[in-house]
Amino acid sequence: MLDKARIRRPKTHEKLMTKLCKGDHAVFDTYADLLIFAAVLGQNRGESGSFSQSAEPVALTIFGGQFDKTVMNTLAVAVSDNDPDIMSDQNVEAKIKIFEEYANGGLNILGTNLENVPDDDIQTTIVNLILRTEKKNKILGDITGLA
Fold first, then answer.
1. Taking 80 as the threshold, does the pLDDT of residue 138 lie above it?
2. Can you give the pLDDT at residue 7?
3. Residue 1 CA to its chain's centroid (Å)
4. What totals of helices (H) and strands (E) does the chain contain, helices first?
5. Cβ-proximal residues to 101 (8 Å cutoff; 6+ apart), any chain
6. Whole-prediction pTM value?
7. Cβ atoms of 14 and 82 closer than 8 Å
8. pLDDT tens for each residue of 82-135
9. Number of neighbours of residue 48 by Cβ within 10 angstroms
10. Coil vs helix vs strand at 59
11. Across the chain, which distance is largest between two alpha carbons, in Å?
């Protein structure tokens, strides 16, 4: 089951994701990296949301690193009232749904913040978004502390 599991990408954010992962002004190496960042941002800001239309999904196996799995498990545990059973392989679909919804929330935040930003300023805008959040919530320490 794990080898066939996929993480859906919200179709409404397809253009944004392509802009952030492809071309001369790409900020993230892969869609998986962007989704991890967006999910942490969404959780940090308390923004998540379901979606029905999906762009091409990303295989769960692409999220192969320990950091990626730790982020997914941490988000799932936080949402499930600290129930460690959510981390089991039997609950992979529930974990994926939680992750997808937080990633969608984070992509909403990124989309809003990057709406009128020239391509040359995208990376600086994202760094400033992180720094503003860091001052408020210490997100950078939380993210790097997981690795």
1. no
2. 94
3. 22
4. 6, 2
5. 42, 48, 49, 50, 51
6. 0.86
7. no
8. 888 888 888 999 999 999 999 999 999 999 999 999 999 999 999 988 887 765
9. 21
10. strand
11. 44
